């Protein structure tokens, strides 16, 4: 490449996708992980609006979003949790008013690295959207790693970023997982193991309270066998995610 060459854009393999859903329930943006970059597209017009480098070298493997609220400058304030390998990035995306849809701003809240690969993550479904602009102390995200361990990803305005181990499911090496946080306080995990098993387990979100000092007890509901080969992908249906026990 000539010394004076300028790279305007790089197209990498798409490694993660997520829609930003507005308050009406419709998609407003399409987010794509391309290598270490996050790209925001106007999916209706197929137009690239913004590019943000999330990690130095690690590819983005997953994106989860949560719509917080509107503010005076933006139509949408969205919380992002992005992961790849052992790396996690948490922050805000602010999407411009309808008159200026290309206005997108990113704000980093936490960037950290775990000692294990991250497989899935989700946000607290009961966050109070009025906290945006004041405090995200009570807004929690959780993630599950390749050894069936769940961590909480917190942003405390006073203490700063917090990454806290919450509980561990049945011991196994995983290739896939899906974690769901239901509105009745139950967090359900489906884990796909290297050995072809599917482990369905859960715990209560009481362990996420600020004064909680001990790990949450994990409840194994089912161990499914019979799959040929390792389980590389798994999703929990919306019906099963509303599991209704409370011990």
Explain this structure to me?
The protein has 247 residues and is an all-beta fold. The chain is built from no helices and 16 strands.
Task: Provide keyphrases for this structure.
single chain; 247 residues; mainly beta; 4-stranded antiparallel beta sheet; 16 strands; globular
Radius of gyration: 19 Å
Output the number of helix runs.
0
Order of helices and strands: EEEEEEEEEEEEEEEE
Largest sheet, spatial ordering of strands: 1-2-3-4
Gap from first CA to last CA = 64 Å
| SS-based class | mainly beta
Q: Characterize the overall form.
A: globular
Q: How many strand segments?
A: 16
Low-confidence runs: 128-137
Q: Give the rounded overall mean pLDDT.
A: 80
Strand content: over 45%
Q: Major sheet, described briefly?
A: 4 strands, antiparallel
- Helix coverage percent of residues? under 10%
